[in-house]
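Dock S-adenosylmethionine; give full complex structure.
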Amino acid sequence: MTQLLLLCRSGYEQDLSEELIHGFALLNIAGYPNFKKGQAWLSFTLVNQPAQALEQKPVKALLGSLVFARQVWQVLGEVSYEDTQDRVTPLLQAFENIEPNVSLGHDVLVEHADSEQGNELARFVKKFNVPLRQAMRAKGIIGRRLKSEKTVKQAHVLFTRSHHCIYGVSINPVSAPNPGGIIRLKFPPNAPSRSTLKLEDAIKHQLTEPERQAIFTEGANGVDLGACPGGWTYQLVQRGMHVEAVDNGLIQEALMNTGMVAHYAHDGFSYQPQYGKVTLLVCDMIEQPDKVASLMAKWLKLGWTDHAIFNLKLPMKQRFDCVSRCLDLVRTELGKSFFRYRMSARHLYHDRDEVTVVVVQSDLI
Ligand SMILES: C[S@@+](CC[C@H](N)C(=O)[O-])C[C@H]1O[C@@H](n2cnc3c(N)ncnc32)[C@H](O)[C@@H]1O
């Protein structure tokens, strides 16, 4: 039996479970989750599957495209401490006893869940990583990483409580190299709203470098639907875009003073781009997700935009169903077009009850 460990936003364990059950069922793999609501992590057992199943391309593709997971790795075991004076030795023993054919790579990452209980362990976890890494290196359990190596294969340890941890190994290349799969961003001091971090997160982590270079070129333009007070527009302006900012509210004065923004107090559902088309459409309107998804598909299909980044605000219940329905809607609509595209949807660290979707026209990259 093979087991996965996944981290997510607290309260989203059920949504991630449904996503996993559904995704693995399509691959004819049965599995079941185990979690407590709010703990921000879950384990998922693949029934009658050897660990080699995790090397299969469709399995990696599924794990790499999960919307609600921030982190995923393979579980090798767990340690319960009677004595918390020395937490290193029992872990060394555990890692020394794993199957000889499992390579732990070059590093070890100690993590905690992003829950109230998990965050209480944050300071300890950060401190503990260094002595554990040193001890594992000294014992030859993990090797030294050569500068030329790009691999992110590493050992993982998740402390669930101060006296209990789960340990395992990353699945290349889907496991996040950073703790908890979280990438913290610094709030830009003059940005108009904290929402700005959602788009920065998406631009930095859902777009590839070639995609960023192709989208944010000199003279590129964008439309921001539901723009006020301007956090998303700010991100586009920072990258040299001229922006049509659409919203009935007010855009931050400093942003207007850049001369890069034209404000249109208009309904986002009936707005059309001023000059026929733009490079990038972004949308953060608090509106029904199905309506937003079909609006995005319409802009892409009509050629009003080359690419789109948008948020889908999630309902209280059946959030996985909602996301699946919206993504299917976009796929169906774009399936009627002639261009190739790449779509990714993520529940980013800076997202709350919403997911961020990126649609990039591959032919233009
Ligand atoms: C979450 S806020 C956007 C925050 C913005 N992205 C930022 O970073 O500052 C949602 C905005 O959507 C706007 N909105 C909602 N429905 C809209 C619609 N149908 N047309 C235009 N704007 C709309 C609201 O007025 C509100 O300002």
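Observed: The first helix runs from residue 13 to 26.
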